[in-house]
Amino acid sequence: MAARDALRKGLARALMGAMAGMLRLALVIALLGALPGVGRATDHALLIGISDYAAAGLEPLPGALTDVQIVRAALRERLGLPDAAITTLVDAEATHGGIRAALADLAGRVAPGDFVYIHYSGYGSRLPGLGDDGEPAAGARTLVPFGARTGAAQGLDRFDISDAEVNAWLAPIAARAGELVWVTDAGHTATHTRGAQAPTPRAAPPAGQDGHASRHAPPLPAPLAQPVRIGAARHDRSAYELPYGAARNRDAGAFTANWVRSLHRAIPGESWRQVFERAAVWTAQDRRIGQQPQISGPAERPLRGGRIAPRRTVPVHSVQGDRVALAAGRLSGVTVGSLYAAVAEDGGAARVRITGVRATTSSGLLTAGDLAAGDLLVEREHAYDSPARRLGLFAPQEPQDAPLLERVRRMAATLSGFEPAATAADADLILALLRPLREAGAARFPVTPSGRDSLPLHDPGAAPEVWVLNRGEALLHDDLAIRLEPAEAGLATLHRNLERYRRLDDLRFLAAEASGGSGLALALIEYAPCAPQSPDCAHLAANLHRRKLAAPLSPPALQARGALPLDQVLSFALVNTGRRARHAYLFELTPDGSIYVLFPLPRHPAAAARLGAGERRDLSLAPFTAGLHADQPGALSILLIGTQLPIDPALLTQQGYERRRDASRSALRPLEALLHAAVAGGETRSLPAIATGTWGADIWEFQVGATDGAPRQTGAQAQ
């Protein structure tokens, strides 16, 4: 993992320092926040609300001023910001120049590690004109400050604020702040047709910007990666004002009202994404407006730098009596029979047993407590709907280890998704209780003319270990050789690691359960070793220099070469081969049991996953750079899921196996694949109905490092 972290950091440096026009690859990026500086971090907030647009001929937005008031109260009461830390700009204070000056002043005051929250409520718009593809041109989306579009204003105060300007003003703040949250409650298209009682859209029609300094500037730079960016609506849709339920005769931004409500319900350990998900569900439920909020950036960070809870949450979509609908389904790992509970840890927390699953939604029965739309649930028990993996046991070589083997057997009986095998020959996995002979931490194996034995030499004086073996009686992974001294800790580690193996195996089964495909084509872009000073050679990490090769490969073409070399670097190109839009999600399943999201990354906007019919997305190019580094020997799989509706790919991720051995890693890693175990013939199961064509998947497996045979061809698909 240290090598992977070094690669991420090296890649970030390579991207930031790249020459103009030079292509750089982002590999398995984890967004790295600024480290806190010495001393106590300071809080800063800037709240901007513009209601008076009369001079520009636009309808007033009284809810923008309500937004400032209720956000200020939430920052003070729920996040603990003192009044002195909160600056407000309303109406005539919030001119183009006034907003720029306020952000420049903020940039001068922010110190490393500080917390910064910025909120804008007002009109949004776009510059007139479309790009070649019919979409708004790069940098076209704008905010409409006070006084813009009027003859009375002077200089830049006459003009909207472009995305390019916002990026430039936020950059010095983002470079210093330990945490930066940027929220905009504004729309970006003109949709003003409405009745007298209809919601008020916060979207101004396009206006001429001739003379604006950024109108003829270079293309918009890549979005800043560090801030958590939250938008009240998609960039091509309106945000709306609605009557504010907490006070009479007042409007507020539909999203801001729900955002504040969600902040007030936040509990210690919640992340920005969890708060956003709750607010987004509430906002989307109002069918009058059809508003879809968006989030990007390092949203998994906990509020105000607190510790993030090691769990992933699913939002409640609706509640009718004891019937609960969840905004996540089969493609987010939800299965029939699983038990979900409210985030609260008290004994009276609500419980939901899943009774039905579709591709992106699910339904359940409320068995305890109370729930409301927008509440967040965590999985307490996972029910597997794919065939159980059969577990066999090897008898120990030392008679005194028989009681310990019985404890292993009893632990295995409690595992969901596993069942005992009748014999070792029938087993998918084998648990072997061994006392391996180790030298310098590495297990020693007997070697015969036919090759190395799969089991290590026996040492009666060694500590007992339980090894998880495949059908070929080879250790699946070094971290699945688990020391059993003390036995309780070792058995707990074995339990958790087998659960991770089962979840990973279940994800593979998901991709193989039907006959269709993802509806997407995947091309692999290789990066070859290069001399550090040669042209187009990127420094990704220590002793890792790569340049992009020109010709992409299909996954089968790369499989046909045989094993991938260690430290292989790959990026991807995606093409929607269908006739309607599709969302693309790319995952890496590693030999150590980890499941990573390769695309879209947390820093990418949610809309990045959407590809129109025939659209191609090159993930070796900014702003959606992504890729992988094959830094572990063993079986590596690439999973591509295509869906009609968006999903949360983070719900499918998991960390790799835990280590429970005092010795260092063995230098002799087994090469047998983690994912080669096939589903036994003749087994059947009952699946909930999923409409044909709403989703599909493809999976490809690659061997990393030396292999003992021909490459495995495992292009499984689902519909």
Write up what this structure looks like:
This protein is an alpha+beta fold and 719 residues long. It has four domains: 41-300, Rossmann fold, CATH 3.40.50.1460; 313-381, Thrombin, subunit H; 389-505, Double Stranded RNA Binding Domain, CATH 3.30.160; 511-718, no CATH class. Helices cover 17% and strands 26% of the residues. It has nine helices and 39 strands. Strands 2-1-3-7-9-12 form a six-stranded mixed β-sheet, with helices on both faces. A six-stranded antiparallel beta barrel has the order 13-14-17-16-15-18. Helix 2 runs parallel beside helix 5 (254-264) and helix 3 runs parallel beside helix 4. The longest helix is centred in the C-terminal third of the chain and has 25 residues, at 487-511. It is globular and about 90 Å long. It starts with a helix and ends with a strand. Mean pLDDT is 77; it is low at 1-40, 130-139, 189-198, 216-223, 662-692 and 707-719.
Give the arrangement of secondary structure elements:
Blueprint: H1 2-16, E1 43-49, H2 63-77, E2 86-90, H3 96-109, E3 115-121, E4 124-126, E5 141-143, E6 161-162, H4 163-176, E7 179-185, E8 200-201, E9 228-231, E10 240-243, E11 251-253, H5 254-264, H6 272-284, E12 294-296, E13 313-320, E14 323-326, E15 339-342, E16 351-357, E17 362-368, E18 376-381, E19 389-394, H7 402-413, E20 418-420, E21 429-434, E22 438-439, E23 442-443, E24 447-448, E25 451-452, E26 465-469, E27 481-483, H8 487-511, E28 520-529, E29 538-541, E30 544-548, H9 555-560, E31 568-576, E32 582-589, E33 595-599, E34 610-611, E35 616-618, E36 627-630, E37 634-643, E38 695-704, E39 716-718
Parallel strand pairs: 1-2, 1-3, 3-7, 7-9, 19-20, 19-21
Antiparallel strand pairs: 4-5, 5-6, 8-10, 9-12, 10-11, 13-14, 13-18, 14-17, 15-16, 15-18, 16-17, 21-26, 22-23, 24-25, 26-27, 28-30, 28-31, 29-30, 31-35, 31-36, 32-33, 32-34, 32-37, 37-38, 38-39
Helix pairs in contact: 2-5, 3-4, 5-6
